[in-house]
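re the bet — no i am not wrong, look at it urself. input seq straight from the record:
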Amino acid sequence: MQFISGFIIFLLQCIIGLYIGLVISNTIIFFPIALSAFIHLLTPFTTVQLALLQRNKNFEQFSKISNSVLIINNILIAIFCYLGFSFWSIPLAWIISIIFQIIFVYNSHIWLPVYSLNCKYLKEIFSFGLRTSLVEILTRTRESIDYLFVGQFLGLDSLGLYYFAFNSGLGFTLSVSRPLERTIYSEICSKLPSGFSLNDLFSCIKSASFVVVSIISIQSLLAPLYVPFLFGSKWVDAGAVPLLIIICLSGITRLPCKTVCLALRANGKLNIELFWNLIFTSLFVIVLFFSSQVSVLYVSLSVLLLHLLMEPAFMAFGIRFFKSLTYQQYFKENT
C-alpha cells in the first residue's frame, strides 16, 4: 500500500509540475519537479521501519537517521548550487539523501518484510491510510497553494520575495515542529486504548505551544537583525522582514491545532479531522485567491488571520469533544 500510494503521489506531482510549467510558460521546470517526485517511489522502502521506531519510542535511533539524512541533504544542495546545477540541486540532493536513508535504515536491521500476501487487515489499513493521506494532502495544499497564487497573479519577483520570507522564517519552525508531531502522536497512542485523558491532551497542547511560541518569538524579534546579517541588506530593502514576521506569526497555532488533530486520529475520529481539513483548506484557497490579486502583503496577512482565527476555534471544539468523551466514559464506568 505504501508503494501504491507513493506511485499515485508521484503521478500527481508530475501533473502539478506540468501545470506549473504551463502557467509560468516554462516547460523545463517540469523535469526537476518530476525528478523530485521520484522520492515518493523510494520512501516506502523505509516507511514501516521508521514508523516502528516511533511506535517503540526509539527516538534516539530515529533522530540519528533523520538528522544524518538532513545534514547530507543540506550539504549536497550547497555543493550542487556551488557547482552551478541551479534548480536541479534540490531534487538531486533529495534523491541522494533518500538513498542514504534507505542504507542507514537497513544497516540498523530494524525490520524486514515478510514476502507473503496477507489481506487480514487490508480493509482497516486501507480505510485508515486513505483518510490520513487525504488529510496530509490537504495540509500540504495549504502550505504550498499560496506559492502558486503569488507566482501566477503577482509575478516571479513577488514569488521570490514571498518564498524567501516563508522559508527563512516559518520554514525553520515547521522543520522543528514536524518531528515533534511524531513524538506527540506516539505519546498519545501510548495512552490508548483507555488511558488517554483530557489532562493528557492539555499537556500535549501546552508542550507544543511552549516550543512554537518560544521559537517564533525569538525569530520575530531577531528578524530585523539576522536577515541583513545572514542574507544581505537587499532583502531588507525589498521588504522581506515584515513579510517574514507576519508569516512566522501564523505558525503559533499550527502545532497545537495539529496536536488536537492527532488526538482525534489516535482515538479513531478520522472523519472529524478530515472534515475540518476540508473546510479549512477550501476557505484557505478562496481567501488566498482574492488576496493574491492585490499584493504579497495581503497574502501574508490572509495566511496569518486564517490560522489565528480558524485553528483556535477548532482547538476549542476538539477540547470540548474530548471533554464530552471523558464524561461519557466516566458515566459508563460508574453505572
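see?? The chain has a mean pLDDT of 86. told u. also The radius of gyration is 21 Å. so pay up
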